[in-house]
């Protein structure tokens, strides 16, 4: 928590206070907000702007070249039209204020007036063209940026997804696409305002060289203030992104169906709400501090602008009084100063929002770069067509972060293909980690994984994944129909009913589908209308059907029967054995040692090390860890219940 308080909180139970030292002392572990990773100076922001602007232009270019060209041309044209119109105003004023009869002066002013009208017409047409092209461009830019973001995020290594720094970047970069979209209209207004300001500045310089520095002095304060406020906002966002995310997570937990039973039975609702409030209040206090700073910065800038404006008009008056400037020129100068400062104001405002958006687009660009660096490599050597075995040779692996011991420690073992291999061991012994390495999800820190004599580290990862079907402990329950939930096992091949039916039969999941109101077409997402929920065991059978549909050469099943009743468990093991009979290799992780009896080979792991290997009978006879665990489980069935003993 950002804030700790000893003050009595209304609604905090005494037990909660005793348990956690009050709710605000109960550290959830993920809500730190002190790791700002960007330091931005005013100068570096100004220097970075053109780079970021060109990045958004590149996105526009990729999204729709034609529209990008139209927008650019129209905005440059509009800026030039304003310059011409300013010159025409100067000419009209010069004619009207000059000597001679009024009728003659009016007649002489007509061409300039006509020019002004024509320029206004052209300006209106260009504006319409720009509006239309911008409207077309904006959604495309957002789509292109989002698509790229999602595509790259889906292609990175699992270790990147699990890395908190990369995840933070994923979080911040997700705003990049909508920022890129917003940058398009901002960028058009910046281009337009910049050109019209340059035009006004040019006219002013022609009228009198002293006027330009005055215009610049008038504008610098608001530019400084706007950019400073934007920088603070961005820095705040980065420093607090974890906090914001945690707040959102708490809000989501309160309404998600999976948490709903515990929230109601264990009364977790008020507890989560209090944390949510405390986090929101901490964030509010920080935002109030920023608002105070923004108000102060704005006020300083306004004073500075006021003084500069007074100095500008005083200079103009002085020049007039001294006879150094004609009245018509002074009139044009006033209009040019007004146009210039208005354009400047627009420019500053738009540069401000452009800058803020550009910073988020900068995050998106950074994500693109880092995701490309951490992408699953493409290409590599081919794996043998029909390997005899996969061999782990002195494999060690430690999860990144602050792990106290390796998850796998110098493991050497063989997985003969076409057989059932069981991995056995207590919780946390490294079984799941081993199969994740086998599937190529992680690479060993040391040692090799050999498919016959081909090192998996050099293999084409896409081809390796092709060979593997996996029913993980926490396999995804996709919120789609039952049919898609099976066929998603191999989404690259056309979905056919025969193939789905075959997989369902192989997995023995037929009766699960019979119970569904619309069979395979039942939507398995309770949150949607017409959606249906399966029990844990029913899901598990559908998961196995998915793996059967994939028909990889190696089937990895991690705790396949954890949620199954005794009859279903027997059935599922029968099915798994049958899959092995078709030539598939089955790598089975289970705590039900009775089910391991039919395995061809058992590897026993303990604290990341391989401690035993052999057939179930050999291991039972050897009296080692496997035999001990097996006897423990068997005794649970043979031991007398205490009541009977007492009786
Ligand atoms: N994604 C992860 N990041 C960091 N550490 C992890 C991760 N997954 C597992 N670990 C750690 O690695 C060790 C081995 O975990 P693993 O999941 O491989 O064990 P397991 O034998 O499959 O356990 P179980 O029987 O409970 O499923 C454990 O100490 C665990 O805390």
UniProtKB/TrEMBL annotation:
The chain crosses the membrane at residues 190-207. Residues 390-632 form the ABC transporter domain. InterPro entries: AAA+_ATPase (IPR003593), ABC1_TM_dom (IPR011527), ABC1_TM_sf (IPR036640), ABC_transporter-like_ATP-bd (IPR003439), ABC_transporter-like_CS (IPR017871), P-loop_NTPase (IPR027417), Type_1_exporter (IPR039421). The keyword ATP-binding applies. One of its GO terms (cellular component) is plasma membrane. Keywords: ATP-binding, Membrane, Nucleotide-binding, Transmembrane, Transmembrane helix. It is a multi-pass membrane protein. The keyword Ribosomal protein does not apply. It is found in: Cell membrane. One of its GO terms (molecular function) is ATP hydrolysis activity. SMART domains: AAA. Residues 79-356 form the ABC transmembrane type-1 domain. It holds the Pfam family ABC_tran. This is ABC transporter. It comes from Streptomyces griseorubiginosus.
């Amino acid at each position: 928590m950002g804030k700790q308080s000893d003050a009595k909180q209304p609604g905090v139970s005494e037990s909660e206070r005793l348990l956690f030292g009050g709710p605000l002392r109960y550290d959830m572990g993920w809500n730190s907000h002190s790791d700002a990773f960007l330091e931005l100076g005013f100068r570096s922001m100004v220097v970075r702007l053109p780079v970021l602007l060109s990045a958004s232009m590149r996105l526009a270019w990729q999204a729709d070249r034609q529209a990008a060209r139209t927008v650019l041309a129209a905005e440059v044209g509009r800026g030039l039209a304003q310059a011409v119109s300013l010159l025409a105003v100067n000419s009209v004023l010069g004619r009207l204020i000059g000597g001679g009869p009024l009728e003659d002066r009016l007649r002489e002013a007509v061409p300039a007036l006509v020019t002004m009208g024509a320029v206004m017409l052209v300006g209106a047409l260009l504006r319409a063209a720009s509006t239309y092209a911008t409207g077309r461009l904006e959604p495309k830019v957002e789509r292109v940026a989002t698509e790229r973001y999602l595509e790259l995020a889906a292609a990175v290594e699992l270790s990147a997804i699990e890395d908190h720094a990369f995840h933070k970047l994923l979080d911040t970069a997700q705003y990049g696409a909508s920022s890129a979209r917003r940058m398009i209209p901002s960028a058009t207004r910046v281009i337009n305002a910049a050109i019209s300001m340059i035009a006004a500045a040019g006219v002013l310089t022609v009228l009198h060289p002293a006027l330009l520095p005055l215009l610049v002095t008038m504008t610098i304060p608001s530019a400084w203030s706007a950019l400073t406020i934007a920088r603070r906002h961005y820095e705040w966002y980065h420093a607090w992104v974890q906090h914001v995310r945690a707040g959102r997570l708490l809000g989501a937990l309160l309404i998600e169906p999976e948490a709903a039973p515990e929230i109601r039975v264990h009364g977790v609702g008020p507890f989560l709400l209090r944390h949510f409030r405390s986090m929101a209040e901490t964030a509010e206090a920080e935002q109030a501090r920023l608002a105070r700073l923004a108000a102060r910065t704005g006020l300083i800038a306004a004073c500075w602008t006021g003084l500069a404006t007074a100095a500008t008009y005083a200079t103009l008056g002085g020049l007039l009084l001294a006879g150094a400037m004609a009245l018509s020129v002074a009139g044009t100068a006033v209009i040019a100063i007004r146009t210039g400062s208005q354009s400047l104001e627009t420019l500053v405002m738009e540069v401000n929002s452009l800058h803020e958006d550009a910073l988020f687009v900068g995050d998106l660009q950074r994500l693109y770069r880092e995701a490309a660096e951490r992408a699953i490599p493409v290409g590599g050597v081919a794996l043998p067509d029909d390997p005899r075995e996969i061999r782990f040779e002195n494999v060690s692996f430690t999860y990144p972060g602050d792990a106290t011991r390796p998850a796998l420690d110098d493991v050497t073992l063989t997985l003969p293909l076409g057989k059932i291999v069981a991995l056995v061991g207590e919780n946390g012994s490294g079984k799941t980690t081993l199969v994740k390495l086998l599937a190529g999800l992680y690479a060993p820190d040391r040692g090799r994984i050999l498919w016959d004599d081909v090192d998996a580290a050099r293999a084409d990862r896409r081809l390796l994944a092709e060979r593997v079907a996996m029913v993980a402990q926490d396999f995804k329950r996709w919120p789609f129909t039952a049919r898609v939930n099976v066929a998603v096992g191999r989404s690259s091949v056309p979905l056919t009913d025969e193939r789905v039916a075959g997989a369902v039969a192989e997995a023995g999941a037929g009766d699960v589908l019979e119970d569904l109101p619309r069979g395979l077409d039942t939507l398995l997402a309770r949150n949607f209308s017409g959606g249906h929920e399966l029990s844990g065991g029913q899901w598990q059978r559908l998961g196995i059907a998915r793996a059967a549909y994939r028909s990889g050469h190696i089937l990895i099943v991690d705790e396949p029967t954890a949620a199954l009743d005794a009859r279903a468990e027997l059935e599922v093991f029968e099915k798994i054995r049958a899959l092995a009979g078709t030539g598939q290799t089955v790598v089975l992780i289970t705590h039900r040692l009775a089910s391991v009896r039919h395995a061809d080979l058992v590897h026993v792991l303990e604290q990341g090390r391989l401690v035993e290997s052999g057939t179930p009978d050999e291991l039972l006879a050897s009296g080692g860890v496997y035999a001990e665990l097996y006897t423990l489980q068997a005794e649970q069935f043979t031991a007398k219940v205490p009541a009977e003993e007492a009786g």
